[in-house]
Amino acid sequence: MILTGVVIACGNSAVGVDACKSIEDARCQRAPDCDIDISDPLHRTGTDVSSCIRYYDTACLHGVDLTTAPSQTEINACVAAVNNGACSVVSAPETDPACSWLIPPAAADAGVDADADDDASDAADADAAD
How far apart are alpha carbons 100 and 35 in whole angstroms? Predict the structure, then answer.
């Protein structure tokens, strides 16, 4: 199984290629400690970890689905979270506050809008009950 979590974008102007490689490298290295199966993609030489890293060296050429590249400080904090965090962070780094910038802007905005809509509907329901 190939790790998922970082959203990859296609295009000619890839953003965050180095960030993607750094984070995926950390995830590949931590995966065996977390019992995450990284035997895919199929490989004939090397270890599962080295194969995982090679896979993401290519996959990360598309960058991450962001409009601006993260700072080196943000990248380092996210890699540290993957290296030192729970296995849930290895599986889904965007769930850790240090890596929350991995969530694409459109997805983050949709979550905020949905919460605002829920609050408005809750207020309307409360008014109707009075």
Answer: 24
Q: How far apart are CA 119 and CA 97, in angstroms?
A: 24
The Cα-based distances of 119 to 12, 110, 124 in angstroms read 40, 14, 9
pLDDT tens, the chain, 130 aa long = 445 555 544 455 788 999 999 999 999 999 999 999 888 777 777 789 999 999 999 999 988 888 888 999 999 999 999 999 999 999 999 999 999 999 987 765 666 554 444 544 444 444 444 4
How far is Cα of residue 55 from the mean position of the Cα atoms in its chain? 16
What is the 8-class DSSP label of residue 100? G
Could you tell me how many residues make up the chain? 130
Q: Is the dihedral of CA 81, 84, 86, 90 positive or negative?
A: positive
